[in-house]
Amino acid sequence: MDQIELFDTKPLQKKQHIVNVASVPQRSPFRYAGGKTWLIPRIRQWLLKHGGLDKELIEPFTGGGIVSLTAAFESLVGQVTMVEKDEGVAAVWRIILEGDAEWLADAIRNFHLTPENARRAIEASNQSLRSLAFATIVKNRVNRGGILADGASFIKQGENGKGITSRWYPETLQKRILAIAQIRHKIKFIEGDGFEICEQNTHRRDTIYFIDPPYINAGRRLYRYSIINHKGLFELANKLEGDFLMSYDNTQEAQDLAEHHGFSTRSISMKNTHHAEKTELLIGRDLSWLLE
After folding, report:
1. Of the ranges 109-123, 152-166, 244-258, 277-291, which one carries the lowest mean pLDDT score?
2. Does residue 183 carry a pLDDT above 90?
3. Backbone conformation region of residue 40, classed left if phi is above 0, alpha if psi is from -120 to 50, else beta
4. CA-CA distance, 16 to 199, in Å (whole number)?
5. What is the pTM of this model?
6. What is the pLDDT of residue 145?
7. Which of 147, 142, 143, 121 is nearest to 133 (CA)?
8. 220 confidence band (pLDDT: 50, 70, 90)
9. 173: domain range?
10. Is residue 172 one of the residues assigned to a domain?
């Protein structure tokens, strides 16, 4: 069983503890590049401090949506608004949250996954919203690393030589999709630009924001809409009257932008049993809750 080692690093200060990833509910139908399941224990800390049933959580770069889903399932806020620009990812959320979840769950459960059938499903993505949603799930599950960007390739060997079926769990996906549909009254989905949605809500003090934009360095390889105005995003965050938490790849550019706006930062490192290491930067106005 994999375990994740999370620790914060600041000059002359280090806090360390072990988080078992298996203890974090896997709620999303996506295996998302840059997903935040490993960060959920910290997200809960933040939401317990700044959330509440009188608050709305806006996630302007939803992607796999694990933060929004956790907040909704665990009633850590009163309302969740998920925003996503990628047409394929948006199609999945629209189908699940706008009344067609049972169809998608059944389509996945009854699909016979082979390389040929996967290609046919992906090639038929432009036929309807349903076909786009289904193709996106298939692509996400058969591509290496779950990458949805153009040019991503199918898994080759996979686990135990299972190839593209390595990450195809139809019964599990069916359960997750139907579970999300059961709480869709708590979630509003917007297909659009996260910048615009945040701009429209800057004055609201009853709103908090989890901002997880495409990585500065690796975003182009991972996402279709990877190029954003990072400087403009920090300027926008500075205008928000509600609290926010940003997650960034730990680059000098992100650190400099945070320092320029007077934001607090903390490096969060993850290490699994396969010795793969990942370091990200959490950014906010006040991160003292991390030490509580």
Report:
1. 152-166
2. yes
3. alpha
4. 37
5. 0.87
6. 75
7. 121
8. low
9. 86-184
10. yes
